Amino acid sequence: MNLETFILGTGGMMPLPHRYLTSVLLRREGELFLFDCGEGTQVALRKLNLKWKKITAIFISHTHADHVTGLPGILMLSSQVDREEPLYIYGPPKIREYVESSRKVLDMYINYEIIIREISEDGLVYEGDGFNISSFKLEHSKPCVGYTLTEDKRPGIFFPDKAEELGVPRGPLWSDLQSGKDVSIADGTVVRPSDVMGESRSGRKFSFVTDSLPLDTIPEKISGSDLFICEGMFKHELKEGAAEKKHMTGVQAAELARAAGGVKKMGLIHYSPRYSKSDLKDMVKEAIEVFPETFLTRDGQHIPIENVD
Predict the structure, then answer these.
(1) pTM of the model
(2) Which CATH superfamily hosts domain 3-154+201-304?
(3) Which residues are catalytic?
(4) Residue range 231-248, pLDDT digits in tens
């Protein structure tokens, strides 16, 4: 089961020629989920040859312009690709007003259903086949939320040698055991999945946090993330200014990852436009001192989220 991330944009405040505004696409077995939709999202999708008609749902952190200005274009384009399925849009209060006013002012031609759900409290917002997406409150200059995608537990490892020892022939019966079903063999003996498989394993987890103070409630939400994408807008020398703007530094993001426990790697995102590539290298160096598995995301980057045995 493939689970992979595509970084569409890494910038904050304003787009740059080499840095689009913040947007991250998550693909799970062909199903696409978009987290934030800054200016340049359409171009980034085109560059990566990703088909926006397959986007099932869009999750918006908050309604500041640098996180939603790509949304009207996505909505209009989706009418040009024979979309039949509804498009879900999730976000804090004002996301409905933004979408509906954009449709009205731009006189959008929309030939598919748009379902908007505003988030007012922490908890489950979307449930799919074998996974769910939840939201949690952040603290910014306007209502803002973070998101996690968590897969259900996966079956344990199947041991073919144990199945053969118990007389289960290769073929459909092996498949039944791996899907959790008891099977009967020729002599009438019942073989259970627990006889030939190890303990169930955790599914994968993806977390997305941007535009927030480094709240002490965040670590619990992101704990166990295989990939944590987090705002790193400023170097730590600007932590006071970051606090005033209700943003965080790369070091503060690293502190959240370390405090959470079980985070396997963290990608910084949403960089201040003041920073050059050299500045960003300095920022990630100081973050790595706190959480060694930190890296800088970059526009167009593909990040597979591997199965964990």
Answers:
(1) 0.89
(2) Ribonuclease Z/Hydroxyacylglutathione hydrolase-like (3.60.15.10)
(3) 66
(4) 999 999 999 999 999 999
